């Protein structure tokens, strides 16, 4: 059966209930899409947790972690800025940490990763931009 994203109504509920959003592949360079999207989400009140093994220190004022398993608190959404062929390990790690949602950004899709995440109890959204969805579904904020 082909993958289908949850309904827009359901995505809205997921966003409204999101506390911590771990952003895998978040760049510390302000001109990168991952940075711009994460900054926009942070400005709307979401807690952004950067995940990038190449960055030590902070991004957007938050401690950057090398991997999801290093985050010392619960994660609601794992938002992924990695190539489609690199997301299976991210899905596996998202299951291990007990995240609620695996969200692959626009242009990113991987059926195997989706199956792993779903089998682990996560909701899965693929090939959608979290910032765009938030702007459409919650234009006035959460």
Ordered list of secondary-structure elements with their pairings:
Blueprint: H1 8-16, E1 20-24, H2 33-43, E2 47-51, E3 58-59, E4 62-63, E5 77-80, H3 88-96, E6 101-104, H4 111-119, E7 123-125, H5 130-137
Parallel strand pairs: 1-2, 1-5, 5-6, 6-7
Antiparallel strand pairs: 3-4
Helix pairs in contact: 3-4
Summarize, please.
With 142 residues, this protein is of the alpha/beta class.
Question: Percent of residues in beta strands?
Answer: 15-25%
Can you count the helices?
5
Order of helices and strands: HEHEEEEHEHEH
Helix proportion: 25-40%
Q: Count of DSSP E strands?
A: 7
Distance between the termini: 33 Å
**What integer value in Å does the Rg equal?**
14 Å
Strand order of the largest sheet: 2-1-5-6-7
Mean pLDDT: 96
Structural class: alpha/beta
Stretches where pLDDT is under 50 for at least 5 consecutive residues are none
Q: Sheet with the most strands? A: 5 strands, parallel
Q: What spatial form do the alpha-carbon principal axes imply?
A: globular
What does this structure look like?
There is one protein chain. The protein is α/β, with parallel strands linked by helices. The chain contains five helices and seven strands. It has helices at residues 8-16, 33-43, 88-96, 111-119, 130-137, and strands spanning 20-24, 47-51, 58-59, 62-63, 77-80, 101-104, 123-125. The strands form two sheets. Strands 2-1-5-6-7 form a five-stranded parallel β-sheet, sandwiched between helices. The protein starts with 7 loop residues before the first helix and ends in a 5-residue tail after the last helix.
């Amino acid at each position: 059966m082909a993958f289908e994203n949850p309904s827009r109504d359901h995505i809205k509920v997921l966003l409204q209930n999101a506390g911590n959003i771990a952003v895998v592949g978040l760049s510390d360079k302000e001109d990168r899409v991952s940075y711009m999207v994460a900054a926009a989400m942070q400005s709307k009140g979401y807690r952004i947790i950067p995940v990038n093994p190449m960055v030590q220190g902070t991004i957007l004022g938050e401690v950057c972690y090398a991997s999801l398993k290093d985050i010392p608190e619960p994660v609601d959404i794992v938002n992924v800025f990695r190539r489609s062929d690199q997301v299976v390990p991210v899905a596996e790690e998202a299951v291990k940490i007990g995240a609620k949602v695996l969200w692959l950004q626009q242009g990113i899709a991987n059926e195997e990763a989706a199956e792993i995440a779903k089998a682990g109890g996560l909701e899965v959204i693929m090939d959608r931009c979290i910032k765009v969805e938030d702007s459409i579904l919650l234009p006035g904020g959460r």
